[in-house]
Amino acid sequence: MYNKNNLEVYKIVSKERCEGVLSGVLFTGEATVATDTHLLIEVSTPNNQDIEDYPTSKEYIINEHKPFVIKADVVKNLIKDIPKNSSLPILENIVVAKSDDEEVASLVTADFTTVNVHKVKKLTGNYPDYKQLFTKEDPKTTIRLSPELLKKIAEFYCKTLEAKSYIDVLIYDEDKPVEFRGENTVTEQEIRALLMPMKRDVS
User: Fold this and answer.
1) Which stretches within the chain are classed as H helix?
2) All domains in the chain, ordered by first residue
3) Which of 1, 22, 61, 82 is disulfide-compatible with 18, CB 3.0–4.6 A?
4) Which of helix, strand or coil describes residue 73?
């Protein structure tokens, strides 16, 4: 079962750089994954709901599935069919149904009156083993940051640096500010930013 957060990963797929299976979203049964070849995002499936509570219908049979990939544009359209702010939150998900064709994925969206079974062609080919890219070693330190504030800093650099510039991220300690450094090489301006870490819960 997948919710809107799972499907939102389609947004990072690059039409310019991605071909074949990399032009789509991977559905593993436990997560969705997408990449633009420079960054990769994995979103686990929701654990706050039970798939057994999803409405049943003679039109489909909910089924466990092997990993498959479908095009990013298709995933974008699926989001439009997921009910919003439903009084039955389980309906704010899609489920994978049994398909008689191994080359086609059957994805179900439903509300109180309508059931839609989307027959979607899978992309052929094997998705790279992305899990090996996640380091299994223990991190030297862990910093907890606000994504909202991190976005503000990133947007500021995007507006003030020339295209294809870079920033350096300096991490000193888990309780010290994270420092960002960038330079506009046209105007020869150095831009520094500090972001305070969020307090981590101590159990």
Assistant:
1) 4-7, 72-80, 147-160
2) 2-133 (3.10.150.10), 147-195 (no CATH)
3) 22
4) helix
List 59's β-bridge partners, or say none: none
Q: Under DSSP, is residue 112 helix (H, G, I), strand (E, B) or coil?
A: coil
**Greater pLDDT, 156 or 14:** 156
Quick: pLDDT tens for 57-102.
888 889 889 999 999 999 999 999 999 888 899 999 999 999 989 9
Mean pLDDT of 3-24: 92
What sign results for the dihedral spanned by CA atoms 67, 123, 48, 5?
A: positive
Amino acid at 157: Y
Q: Is the pLDDT of residue 203 over 70?
A: no
Residue 138 pairs in a beta bridge with: none
CB-based contact 19:57 (threshold 8 Å): no
Q: Is 21 left (phi over 0), alpha (psi -120 to 50) or beta?
A: alpha
Tokens of 50: 């039970």
133 is written with which tokens? Answer: 């890219």
Please give the DSSP secondary-structure letter assigned to residue 81.
T
The rounded radius of gyration (Å) of the Cα atoms in the chain is 21
Taking residues 162-178, what's their average pLDDT? 92
Sheet strands (E) in the chain: 2-3, 24-27, 31-35, 40-44, 68-71, 93-97, 104-110, 115-121, 167-170, 178-184, 189-195
Tokens matching residue 42: 């994995």
